[in-house]
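Hi Q.,

Before the meeting this afternoon, I wanted you to have the magnesium ion prediction in hand. No need to reply - just skim if you have a minute. The sequence and ligand are here:
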Amino acid sequence: MAELSIKNINKRFGETEVLKGVSLDIADGEFVSLVGPSGCGKSTLLRIIAGLEAQSSGDIRIDGRSVGGRRAADRNLSMVFQSYALYPHLSVGENIAVPLKMRRMNGLQRLPVLGGLIPGQANKSAEISAEVAQAAQMLEISHLLDRKPGQLSGGQRQRVALGRALVRDPAAFLLDEPLSNLDAKLRVQTRAEIAQLHRRLDATFIYVTHDQVEAMTMSDRIAVMMGGRILQCATPETVYDDPDRVEVAEFIGSPKINLLPVELRETGQVDLFGKALDLTTTRRARGVASLGLRPEALFLAAEGAPIRGRITHRENLGSEMFIQIEVAGLEPRVTFRAGPEKRASLEIGSMVDLDFDTAKALVFDATGARVRDVSPTRVSKAEVA
Ligand SMILES: Nc1ncnc2c1ncn2[C@@H]1O[C@H](COP(=O)(O)OP(=O)(O)OP(=O)(O)O)[C@@H](O)[C@H]1O
Ligand SMILES: [Mg+2]
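Predicted structure with the ligand bound:
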């Protein structure tokens, strides 16, 4: 198993700069997800780590040694692709055995008939069969070993691809959106299985996805990528509760974080819709900024609370509800969470007043950077009302 160090990777395709100085250190046994919108460079970065693509500059180290000159086959990394890339004419067992045969047998030995006549061959074949059987058992596909990929479901194919990655006993697993071809239910199930597999193997995983829920549920750390850069790499809790930038706050979390326009005054006062909030900032920066409030940071309050709007939509998930309100002068609607017991009082069309938990308020300056020295003031509007 291995630790990986990615140092200042740049990548251009002709004129287009796809990766702009990406650095990331991954500890031995860690599960790190790369998340970000389509086209931000996730697959490119993974392919560079795997050695399938060359970087324009920068260095990749595995266990402290640069792999710059090493081909993909010599990096001892297993990659699982979104498309699974199985050989259609080989059985499941043969597909899983491919990397073992490639490594342990020469070209002649790999020939189906002639290979069998070579001395010592039977031993090797038996060894390989045993390892294939073990991987199949781990992934619960033992009963499928004789089938062809065409006779399998998407989830089963995905497991075969994982099995093939598994038998190589790699230094690290690189997975590129391995669940994106599965239906919603199977994704949730397979997600849990991959997380379990990671715990059991204690191996290093780098997992690419554009699905933030996948990343949140599986990872030790999440690297949020945008426009060829890693904006933040931290635990799921940190990227959710304590994002460094507004783009990270917006990408992580569902429903999305609410962003309200605020003004930072010279006095430290933070104004929303021209009225002071129960927040102060000591920062010299002034002017327009935005206040990020997750749906669960908002709560129903008495009239006079900072946010007032009309309910336009109600999403009842059973255990909780997400309510959208239209606030005068504000473009996107504001979403807040409410318990199902509030159902009767939250009719579509009615007006509500909302206050927020000041400890959960996230302020971002005009450039999108987090303003960290924000503190709640004592007197809160909700208490006065
Ligand atoms: N071989 C290539 N030649 C030119 N441009 C490329 C090449 N491969 C990728 N790109 C460009 O690089 C950018 C990043 O692509 P990449 O596949 O890494 O994105 P991604 O984050 O994996 O996106 P997705 O979530 O859609 O898979 C894209 O704008 C893409 O068009
Ligand atoms: Mg991709």
